[in-house]
Amino acid sequence: MTLQERAAAFVALGKRIAQMSDAAFDELAISVENNNNWFTSDQVRFALQGLSAMLEEEKVNAWLGRYEPKEVGIPKRVGVLMAGNIPAVGFHDLMMVLVSGHIAHVKLSSSDQVLIKWLVNELVDIAPSLGERVVFEEMLKAKDAYIATGSDNSARYFDYYFGKYPSIIRKNRTSVAVLDGRETEKDFQELAKDIFQYFGLGCRNVSKVFLPNKELLQAFLKAIEGYSFTCSHHKYLNNYEYNKSIYLVNCDRHLDNGFLLCKESEELVSPIAVLYFEEYANTKELEQKLVGQQEKIQCIVSKEAWYPSSVAFGQAQRPEIDDFADHVDTFSFLQGL
Fold first, then answer.
1. Which one-letter DSSP state was computed for residue 186?
2. Are 303 and 183 in contact (CB under 8 A)?
3. CA-to-CA distance for 280 and 274, rounded, in angstroms?
4. CATH numeric code, 3-172
5. Among 169, 227, 265, 309, which residue is least crowded by beta carbons within 10 Å?
6. Mind listing the pLDDT tens digit of every residue in the chain (337 residues)?
7. What are the Cα distances from residue 43, in Å, to 38, 46, 197, 288, 302?
8. Biological process GO annotation list (predicted)?
9. 56-78 burial by CB neighbour count: b if 16+ within 10 A, else e?
């Protein structure tokens, strides 16, 4: 297959996802949730809708048009260690390996065993020759290159074993929001999407807000009351109640609207059901702080994307095909092997 043919297969996959029948989706969603209770039907649907939108023909062609058309001579064996924090989070890496012409040796996360395999089966049904380019393995030894996603701790392990090979090794990241006081009720409701989608488990989920004054939190918490249904999920509720009890026992000051805890902290990564906040005096001070923490931040959201290099509220979990994790161009890396 040529580069364009491989890309076209993914476009066709996007169309197939969009055309799924309700019965087919329900069957898939049940299997996915049985594997991981965090991956509810709504979360799976959102993830698949995002993939379908990302794989629209115009978007894929525009993305590929930025690179020099290049066919690999001898395909490299690329080990892909996938995370499993949100549904099909490793799909983008898989796509990059296959479109670039290499062979993907995939180690799935135990938390996402079903959806990735379903996507691969659908892709191979569209383009059977790609079936030889995807290998699922438990041990990824002696590959030509590696793409590994995990925590800060696992990244040290990955670096020890894979550092001598061409590799992309990703650590913990999170996302933040910047408020400036102009936000409306609608803006806060859009921001809530960035906080609660996937129950806050993704690196593109907002775990902290920077604001000019704490009074904004009251308006924010009132505006997002419609998300109280989040606590109907037993795992989220368990985390909410656990963190609340810890704060109460320790007499930690916090705000509580019944399903989200807001706590002042200089840290970036908050526990599930907790949103950290921090005041800033001026934008220059804020910029210096965020630049100093840029290695830990996946994306920044703000009202209508006013803050430099940010995305608009509600769009954090709607990445485009060129929104590479950790801002490292995976496709360029693979083309250079």
1. H
2. yes
3. 20
4. 3.40.605.10
5. 309
6. 999 999 999 999 999 999 999 999 999 999 999 999 999 999 999 999 999 999 999 999 999 999 988 888 899 999 999 999 999 999 999 999 999 999 999 999 999 999 999 999 999 999 999 999 999 999 999 999 999 998 888 888 888 889 899 999 999 999 999 999 999 999 999 999 999 999 999 999 999 999 999 999 999 999 999 999 999 999 999 999 999 999 999 999 999 999 999 999 999 999 999 999 999 999 999 999 999 999 999 999 999 999 999 999 999 999 999 999 999 999 999 999 9
7. 8, 5, 7, 35, 23
8. bioluminescence
9. eeebbeebbeeeeeeeeeebbbb
Which residue matches tokens 């005041």? 279
Q: Are 45 and 29 in contact (CB under 8 A)?
A: yes
The class level of CATH for 174-312 reads alpha beta
Domains 3-172 and 174-312 share a fold: no
Distance separating alpha carbons of residues 222 and 64, to the nearest angstrom = 44
> Is the distance from CB of 272 to CB of 200 less than 8 angstroms?
yes
Contacts of 100 (CB under 8 A, 6+ apart): 72, 331, 334, 335
Beta bridge partners of residue 155, listed in sequence order: none
Helices (H), the chain: 3-18, 22-35, 41-54, 57-64, 91-100, 115-126, 152-162, 185-196, 216-223, 234-249, 283-292, 330-335
CB of 274 closer than 8 Å to CB of 245: no
Q: What is the DSSP letter of 276?
A: E
Q: Name the phi and psi angles at 297, rounded to 5.
A: -110, 125
Q: Does the predicted TM-score (pTM) go above 0.90?
A: yes
Residue 329: both structure tokens together: 């161009």
Element (H, E) at 11: helix 3-18
Do the Cβ atoms of 152 and 172 come closer than 8 Å? yes
**Tell me, what amino acid is at 62?**
A
Q: Residue ranges of the domains in the chain? A: 3-172, 174-312
Name the token pair of 27: 């069957």
Report how far residue 38's alpha carbon sits from residue 86's, in angstroms, rounded to the nearest whole number.
Answer: 8
